[in-house]
Amino acid sequence: MVKGAGGLDRILAMEIVRVTERAAIAAARFRGRGDEKAADEAAASAMRMELDKLPIKGTVVIGEGEQDETPTLYIGETLGKGGGPDVDIALDSLEGTTVCAKNLPNALSVIAVAAKGSLLFAPNVYMQKIAIGPGFAAGTVDIDASPRENIENLAKAKGVPVGEITACILDRPRHARLIEAVREAGAAIRLIGDGDVAGVIHATEPGETGVDIYLGSGGASEGVLAAAALRCIGGQMQGRLILDTPDKKARAAKMGITDFDKVYSAEDMAKGDVIFAATGVTDGNLLAGVRFGRDVITTDTIVLRSSSRTVREIRARHRDLERL
Q1: How is 130-181 classified by DSSP, letter by letter?
Q2: How much of the chain is in helix, strand and coil states, percent to nearest 5?
Q3: What is this structure's pTM?
Q4: Per-residue pLDDT tens for 68-97?
Q5: Which of these, 134, 179, 136, 168, lies nearest to 154 by C-alpha position?
Q6: Is the dihedral angle over the CA atoms 154, 160, 162, 168 positive or is it negative?
Q7: Going from the N-terminus, what domains does the chain have, and what CATH number goes with each?
Q8: How far apart are CA 256 and CA 50, in angstroms?
Q9: How far, in Å, CA of 198 to CA of 212, rounded?
């Protein structure tokens, strides 16, 4: 295999496409059936099977949960058949289990791969996040600033009125005060039911998605995956783990985290050469969902690499072996 400047095999960027494609297809068979568990388990099983075919020695640093929470793709699990690079793996075999079960937009199968020691090793907790797209000066937004300050600073940097700014926020009761503050500042809001990896990525393409900034808290796993994507396509992101109980702090300490209040940048969460891939499960702003034909399945995938800033969009047709 030919290695890139960052040390990862170039061909690995294409090989991990099969990982997200297979997981997305497995999950899509449960679209709209109201069974979140079945969709999630199918996606995880398919993703693990494909990962074990890759010539890597991979360690899951962001996974489906911690070892006592899930039977597969757990944090710390080793995957791959060896014979290649030692890598960190961050994954979410089905990002948006609820939206898949309801057949709503923006369910994805997502993975990021980087050299060993490059991805944030974090417990399965919430993370406070803020993200904007590329082209802005450092410090345009700040996780410790108020929603109004961040909205006004971003509007000034874009050269537009505050009323032309749209914030993407997960529709959760915990965000009631945040939503109120953003509206009081004069900005619009796009609420999403799930899928904050896609939410962060949407903020990098406001001309296409209509989203200028991502705000709020969501899973730490999604935070690291979103940071990996931003490392490849540009943008700013800050995240802080929400370690608000002794148990969460103990779990974080076990993973080597000593500063419980640390604000992580995208570069802190995903260092060095990073490869990111996402395949659509349901239709969304970012990717089309899986299409089942008479005997062919069509998938839509985006593959990103930080060292080259390459963005590949892959529409693939697969023989549907279950129907042949």
Answers
A1: EEE-SSS-TTSS-TTS-HHHHHHHHHHHHTS-GGG-EEEEE--GGGHHHHHH
A2: 30, 30, 40
A3: 0.90
A4: 677 788 988 999 998 888 999 999 999 999
A5: 136
A6: negative
A7: 12-119+274-319 (3.30.540.10), 126-269 (3.40.190.90)
A8: 29
A9: 13
